[in-house]
Structures are given as structure tokens and as C-alpha cells.
Design goal:
The chain contains 17 helices and eleven strands. With 401 residues, the protein is an alpha/beta fold. It has two domains: 264 residues, Crotonobetainyl-coa:carnitine coa-transferase, domain 1 (Rossmann fold); 85 residues, formyl-coa transferase, domain 3. A six-stranded parallel β-sheet has the order 3-2-1-4-5-6. A three-stranded antiparallel β-sheet has the order 7-8-9. Strands 10-11 form a two-stranded antiparallel sheet. The longest helix has 24 residues.
Length: 401
């Protein structure tokens, strides 16, 4: 098997919390050496975000930090000090890429902006992740996860039509931004290798959310129509809903007239519903959705979600179910693909992690190694700059590292 795709690439990771660390986590998974630069004594703010392993609020037991920082090395460094900034520039000379998610004003204020750092390493790449991007009238505005989903437009189409817009359960704005940052970074690496041109990747949370609105903007542009919130009911030409079943929730989907016929005959075993005037067409089913839900619910409450899932799939229907985490861990599909990996952390102990998000047939994905302790790799990384142990002691006493 060939070496990992990003083997030999060194990344200086200045990111915190979710979007940036998710980007660098993916880079590390493909073999890049990711050196996470953290504030002395505090580290990435995610270290203080629960839940914590064993319910112990310890900076090395934050499950968020543990998940997002696998396969990385940690050094501590105060970028606001003159000595710290100088050390960072020395590290840049040995690096290929800097990833940061500060507010756009921060790196220039430290004299560590891209144009400045390129003077020390002309081939340097930089990925900058921010709320609204490096330019524009909102450049310096603040943003939270929920507001990212809101200003990006996704909340407007999420939730029940008669209620206020809803935030999604996962931190989708952060993770999709991290994924876009990773994609842009990979393109920048490829461009540098093929053309020799180095560049900065500018990633915006607002734009990342706006990019996954499906056809909503086109619909508004072409037809001057506003897409309504539909909750768990699809507004298009087919049946879609989530219903209670005996042990959870099942997803009922009938995309075509043939699906509806199969559903009535082979699942509900009520062929008379096929031509029932209340449900015979997609429009009728939508108009009488409450009545149809009652009919379907009577059947689903007598069956378990896995039973419904396999019965429908064997009949050619694209049903599903709402999986709990326990369901995912026990999933024969994820098990067959070795998705989850167990990682042993020296402080948090053994825990099961989600694994690689994609597979490459000829290129390996790095096995998961645990997230680093704060400053765990100071001696290794700063040793490359010629610093001795006594030098590090003096820097630590001055709070530089």
C-alpha cells in the first residue's frame, strides 16, 4: 500500500473549537503532520467544553476536544509576545500550511498575516476560517452556531410551517465549514504542486451554510417563490414522514405511484387504500396528511423500526429509521466497513470514535491516535529549531510557551 496522501506536509494549526479543528483533523487523517499551537496554560477553548469523560471537567477529558484533535501534536506558544511571534515565524519556515480561525483583524494585528508570513516562506499556504470571510461589510461581526444557520438561510427552511424556524441538532454550520476549509486546502495544495503558486484559502461560515440550501435560492430567483418550511412532511410529489413505531421512529417514504401501490399492498396489506379518494394522488395524500398519518401509525406502532426497515427495503421501498447512537454502534453496515475505532487516551481512557469519512482504495487513512495533552510535543517540535530543554524551561518561566 502506498504512503498516506499528505505524508510530508507540515501544518501549523492555530484553530480552536470546531470548524478549524475539523479541517485539520481531516488533514491529519490523510497523513499530514499537524502541529496544534495552543495558548500556554489554557489551550484550545474546546478543552473546557463538556461533556467530559467520566463527568470530570478536566481539559484532557473534553469529548469535543478529544474527537476533533486526533492524530495531532500539541505545542504551547503565546503569539502575542515578541518572542512567541518570532518562534512562530521560525516554525513557519519549516511548514507547508497554516490554518487559522481567528477574527480577520487578529493575524494582521500580530503581524502574522499571510502576506507577512510569505516573506519567511514564499511557498506557504494559509487557510483562514471566519464568520463572514476576510472581506465584506460584516467581516468583523460576531456569530454563533445558531446564528450561522440563521444568517446562512438554513433555519428559514427548517421546522414546522406553523412554528418558528428551528436550529438543527448537530453543529452543522461548524462542520460544513470545516469540510469546505479542508476541500479548499486540498485544492490549494494541488495547485501549488502543479503550478508552484501559493495562495490563501478564505472560508466563511455564512457562505458555507448558504452553499447547502439545495435549490431554494434558484427557486426564489426563477419563480419568485419562497420555499415553505415543511417539518417532517415533504411538500413535493411524494409521501415523506417520520412516525412513532414500537421502539422509536421510522421513516415512511413513497416517491412514486408504484411505491405507494407497493406500500399499500405489501407493507400495510390494505390494497383498498390505493384508490381511496383521500389518498389516491400525491396531492390528496398531502391534503389529508393527518388522516393518512393515523392509518400508518396504527400499523407502525405494532412493529419495531428494524423490522419495518428490512421489510420495506426487501419490497424495494426506500424506508429508514431514526438511529440512536446505540443503533449506530451495533450497525452491521458500519461494522462491516470498520467505521468506529477505539482510541486509548492516557487521561480520558478508552473510548469509541467515529472513523474516516471516506475510503480511498489505494491510499491509506492514518489509524486514529489520541488527542494530545496540552504542550505534549514542545520538546520535539521546538527541538527542530535548535532549542534545548533548558531553553524551553526559560521560555516556560516567561510564559512564552
Amino acid at each position: 500500500m502506498s504512503e498516506a496522501p499528505l505524508s510530508g506536509i507540515t501544518v501549523l494549526d492555530l484553530t480552536q473549537y470546531i470548524a478549524g479543528p475539523y479541517c485539520t483533523k481531516l488533514l491529519a487523517g490523510l497523513g499530514a503532520e499537524v502541529v496544534k499551537i495552543e495558548k500556554p496554560g489554557r489551550g484550545d477553548g474546546a478543552r473546557n467544553v463538556g461533556p467530559f469523560a467520566e463527568d470530570d471537567p478536566h481539559p484532557d477529558k473534553s469529548t469535543l476536544f478529544l474527537y476533533l484533535n486526533t492524530n495531532k501534536k500539541s505545542v504551547t506558544l503565546d503569539l502575542k509576545s515578541a518572542t512567541g511571534a518570532s518562534l512562530f515565524k521560525d516554525l513557519v519556515k519549516q511548514a507547508d500550511l497554516v490554518v487559522e480561525n481567528f477574527a480577520p483583524r487578529v493575524m494582521p494585528s500580530l503581524a502574522l498575516d499571510y502576506e507577512t508570513l510569505k516573506q519567511f516562506k514564499p511557498s506557504l499556504l494559509m487557510t483562514s476560517i471566519s464568520n463572514f470571510g476576510q472581506t465584506g461589510p460584516y467581516r468583523d461581526y460576531l456569530l454563533t452556531e445558531m446564528l450561522g444557520l440563521a444568517v446562512g438561510g438554513l433555519m428559514f427552511i427548517t421546522g414546522d410551517p406553523e412554528r418558528e424556524p428551528l436550529k438543527l441538532g448537530a453543529k452543522l454550520a461548524q462542520y460544513i465549514t470545516g469540510l469546505h476549509a479542508y476541500t479548499g486546502t486540498m485544492i490549494a495544495i494541488h495547485c501549488r504542486e502543479s503550478t508552484g503558486v501559493a495562495q490563501q484559502v478564505d472560508v466563511s461560515i455564512m457562505e458555507s451554510v448558504a452553499s447547502i440550501l439545495d435549490v431554494t435560492p434558484l427557486w426564489a430567483s426563477y419563480s419568485n417563490l419562497v420555499r415553505p418550511r415543511a417539518g417532517n412532511r415533504h411538500t413535493g410529489a411524494y409521501l415523506f414522514c417520520i412516525l412513532f413505531c414500537r421502539d422509536g421512529y421510522t421513516g415512511i417514504i413513497a416517491m412514486t405511484p408504484k411505491h405507494w401501490e407497493i406500500y399499500c399492498k405489501k407493507i400495510l396489506e390494505r390494497p383498498g387504500l390505493i384508490n381511496d379518494a383521500r389518498f389516491a394522488t400525491s396531492h390528496a395524500r398531502l391534503q389529508n396528511a393527518d388522516e393518512l398519518d393515523a392509518v400508518m401509525l396504527e400499523w407502525t406502532m405494532e412493529h419495531e423500526k428494524e423490522e419495518i426497515y428490512h421489510l420495506a427495503q426487501s419490497a424495494g421501498l426506500p424506508f429508514g429509521y431514526v438511529a440512536t447512537f446505540e443503533d449506530l454502534v451495533k450497525s452491521p453496515q458500519l461494522g462491516a466497513r470498520d467505521y468506529f475505532e477505539e482510541v486509548d487516551h492516557p487521561v480520558a481512557g478508552k473510548v469509541l470514535y467515529p472513523g474516516r469519512p471516506f475510503k480511498l482504495t489505494e491510499s491509506p487513512w492514518e489509524p486514529l491516535s489520541c488527542a494530545p495533552l496540552l504542550g505534549e510535543h514542545n520538546e520535539e517540535i521546538y527541538g527542530r529549531l535548535g532549542l534545548k530543554r533548558e531553553d524551553l524551561t526559560r521560555l516556560r518561566e516567561r510564559n512564552v510557551i
